Amino acid sequence: MITFDEVTKRYPDGTVAVDRLSLEAPTGEITVLVGPSGCGKTTSLRMINRMIDASEGRILLDGVPVEGIDPPTLRRGIGYVIQQAGLFPHRKIVDNVATVPYLLGWDRRKARDRAMELLERVGLDPSLAGRYPFQLSGGQQQRVGVARALAADPPVLLMDEPFSAVDPIVRTSLQDELLRLQAELNKTIVFVTHDIDEAIKLGDRVAVLRVGGTLAQLADPKTLLSRPADDFVREFLGHDRGIRRLQFVPTSGLELRTDLAVAPGASGPDGEPWHLALTPEGRPAGWVPRDEPERLERYGTFVLGRDSLRSALDAALLSPSGCAVAVDGDGKVVGVATRDALDRALAEAADG
Amino acid sequence: MSWLTSFLGWLGEFFGDPANWSGPGGIPARLTEHLEFSALALALAVLVAVPVGLAIGHTGRGQLVVVVAANLARALPTLGVLVLFVLLLGTSSIWPVIIPLVLLAVPPILVNTYEGIRGVEPELRDAAYGMGLRGGQVLGQVLVPVALPLILLGLRLSAIQVVATTTVAAYTGLGGLGRYVIDGFATKDYSSVVGGSVLIVAFALVVQAAFTLVQRVTVSPGVSRRLKVRQPPARKENSR
Could you tell me which residue ranges the ABC transporter domain spans (chain A) (predicted)? Predict the structure, then answer.
């Protein structure tokens, strides 16, 4: 656990970057520091591994004040990932990943074996090990950056806007990868971003900081979205806060209709403007309008129980019938969530 | 084409004369002298300029030294300094020649070493410290390898200048390849002038080539980007 105890960072010119910040980053969880530029989020992060020293207050690592630890020793025990990856251009990928093990005096071979293992862990082809950083794409470099931070298996990982320099598609895949890794590794992660969507997606807990380095709110994403502490947080969360909240509402409680899904060859139920045609395997084929039985219209699906109400709503909006198709993990149709069913679920979500 | 004929004639005369290939005035001896003076001057300059350049570049303290050195390099008339030192110290030793050569060689090495270290991307420095490297390790394991092309460029510029200027050292009565040119002019022995000039040019080219080779061997392909950029397999990035 990382504890900020009334931490202040004041620069010689009098600027206060962080103002009496107190918060805890619990062990095994992702704590995201988010806020506009000038809110001191990066400064706060860098005070943990003493890249910057606090002016007042203490930062404790599992109860031990970091100020008492020699900075290089402290840093070797903490993974650090920065924007642009910061890989050493003159070293091969495998040696970049093995940086900290080398520093810790590991046997060269053991360090390299470990590096190879980590490359696979972060989803990189082992054939990249012998390349140099300039031969890799931005997204691949960032994965190497994560692998390097994990090399000596530190319990704590500090990530300073690690994914902000890559394009949105790669960013999404890197975020998913981080969540997958975290499910396996259970590190104590402090993650800095200015992107509230990223914060909500990744954070177990999100600390919203305001300019001047004070804490505006510390909460789990769901609480943050449903009960913002003040106008600053509300504004920072943006206008589609209500929609985003739906990603925390499960679909398991949705009422489904099974009579609208029709096996091949059969006709739809009477009085319904649309029915869903199924393939012989039970997968969706398309929506069929009652008066044109030969037509197949596009459909949207969500995985029942796994996807959120936001996905279900999205699926409904993609279908001309206005209904979302619920499927199981294999893509087989379980039922159909109609507008009415979604409306009722939305009304419940708004109450809770 | 008469100039070419006489040029080739002089060349043939100079290189064809067996007397020019042996003894203290022979080509091997003069070449060795030239190499010795240049190498000594360059080595001393490296000993002074590289550590100072690394220290200033790494700590950011003493940047004024670099500015002064850079300006001196432009302002200092080499021949003037050479003559001055000879007048002050006499010609009984090689130092009146070596010292001006060192003074000439220091600024390019100092400035390029400093600029090389200074110019390393701040994120890289940050990452190195963040990984837990100590100050000396950051310098030795990250900054120097990354700045090496510029450091070597400084060395090469200095080496070329020193080799060229060592020729002038012959004015003061010292050996080296310059002897052929200066003595040749004095005695109107144009085959000696032409032969000496060709030797000096060839020597400078060999020095260039040697540095290119050193650069090839010592600079990481990741820094020089000499390797072809192979397109990495696309499957990992897109499939997840």
Answer: 2-237
